[in-house]
Structure formats: structure tokens, C-alpha cells
Design goal:
Length: 217
């Protein structure tokens, strides 16, 4: 164990990627996001659409977990889950959330802060219908974030719902759907040598325009 602690204390990756210059970044952070996402896809970053979603419940307790980004359009980022899950309950108490992408091969992270609201039901329905049969059944079998006695209990419920809904597509379950996060803050982080990283932030103003500034690493 001691050895592992020493390894963690002493590991020092120096970052040596290209600079991130505020003058070259678009005026609009969403355009910058799309550029970076395109690059992550082109460079085959593993799990490029996986992001951390952080919520804060009514006792002010933060909680984070990874979900997949499934859609984005002009400052709105969508993920899907069970509306009875812990994260959904947290959002119903407090709709302020943070999103985080970390793309190790590019030495980049993107931080987003925004307000979550339920996706329109037609959008959730249409995404649900695009999911494979087994995933659709799972949305019924798993009451996400609830305690269960055993894995066999879960598998039994999966079988029961597979018998109930033998044909594809399975009817849309209203307890499942999307959260649309509307961003009002973005930060683009590029790892640089000697811990002198580049950080460019964008903040939405009351009139809807964006201010862009550099942060100390
Ligand atoms: C790579 C990855 C992708 C995931 N994608 C999703 C997702 O899109 N939706 C989801 O509900 N959970 C997803 N999960 C599971 C969540 O991290 C989490 O365990 C689950 O949503 C329950 O979280 P909660 O109890 O805080 O609500 C993913 C996990 C990983 C590691």
C-alpha cells in the first residue's frame, strides 16, 4: 500500500500540447465546444462523449457521476436517465448542475455550468425508440439508484419485462428521459508545460452576449 501512495505522490506528467490562445478561440463558447468535440472524435479519444455530471441536493451535498452526452445544440447539452434516480431527484431539488469532460490524450478538460430542465417528452421518446431492445427493457427493470437485494432480483425483473414487452420497440416509459442543461459558463483547459496551463473562460451576460477571459492555472 505504501508503494502505491508513493507512486501517486510522485507521478508528474508534464503537459506538452499546443497552446490555447484566447485570440484564436471563437467569440462563442458553443462554437469552441463543437470544435473541440470534433477534434476529440477525429483523434478517437476513448469515451469522448462521457462527462461527469455534478448535482447538489437540498442539503447542499454535491454528488458526481459519469453519463453519456447524447445530444447538443446551441448551449444545451442533453443526457438521458431514469427520472426517479438520485441525480434526477437532486436536479428536481436544485436545477443548478455542472458538466465536465476530460480528454486525456488531448490533455484537455471542458467545464460547463448551467441549469437543467427536463427534455421535451417528444425528444426523450424519440431517443428512447432509437435504443437497442435490451436497453429499453432495462429502463423498466432498473429503478435506478434504489436499493436491491441481489443481482438475481434485477435479472428476474429484466425477464419479467422482456415477457411483458416481447416486441421492439418497447413502449416509452414516462419515468425515463432526458435532462437538457443550458450553459451559462464554459471553461476550456489545455495542459501546458510546468503547470502553466491555459484556461479560457466564457461567461454569459444578462443581454445574452458572452465575455471571454483568461484564468490563472
Ligand atoms: C462511461 C459511463 C457512462 C454512463 N452513462 C450513463 C447515462 O448516460 N445515463 C445514466 O443514467 N447513467 C450512466 N452511467 C451510470 C452513472 O454513472 C450512474 O451510476 C447512474 O446514472 C446512477 O447515478 P445516480 O444514482 O447518481 O443517479 C454511466 C456510467 C459510465 C461509467
Amino acid at each position: 500500500m505504501e508503494d502505491i501512495k508513493k507512486i501517486i505522490q510522485n507521478i508528474r506528467n508534464d503537459f506538452n500540447n499546443e497552446e490555447l490562445n484566447e485570440l484564436h478561440l471563437p467569440e462563442n463558447p458553443f462554437d469552441a465546444f463543437v470544435e473541440w468535440m470534433k477534434e476529440a472524435i477525429q483523434k478517437q479519444v476513448p469515451e469522448y462523449n462521457a462527462m461527469v455530471v455534478s448535482t447538489v441536493n437540498q442539503n447542499l451535498q454535491p454528488s458526481s457521476r459519469i453519463v453519456y452526452l447524447r445530444d447538443y445544440e446551441k448551449d444545451t447539452f442533453t443526457f438521458y436517465c431514469n427520472y426517479l434516480s438520485k441525480k434526477s431527484r437532486d436536479i428536481q431539488d436544485n436545477n443548478k448542475v455542472a458538466l465536465l469532460f476530460y480528454w486525456i490524450p488531448l490533455q484537455r478538460q471542458i467545464r460547463i455550468e448551467g441549469i437543467a430542465k427536463k427534455s421535451p417528452i417528444e425528444k426523450s421518446k424519440s431517443y428512447f425508440e432509437s435504443r437497442p431492445y435490451e436497453n429499453q427493457i432495462s429502463a423498466y427493470a432498473s429503478v435506478q439508484s434504489q436499493k436491491i437485494a441481489s443481482r438475481s432480483e434485477l435479472l428476474k425483473k429484466f425477464e419479467e419485462y422482456a415477457q411483458k414487452f416481447p416486441t421492439y420497440p418497447v413502449p416509452y416509459p414516462e419515468h425515463w428521459g432526458g435532462w437538457d442543461v443550458e450553459a451559462h459558463y464554459y471553461e476550456f483547459w489545455q495542459g501546458r508545460p510546468s503547470r502553466l496551463h491555459d484556461r479560457i473562460a466564457y461567461e454569459k451576460q444578462k443581454d445574452g452576449s458572452w465575455t471571454k477571459y483568461r484564468l490563472s492555472p
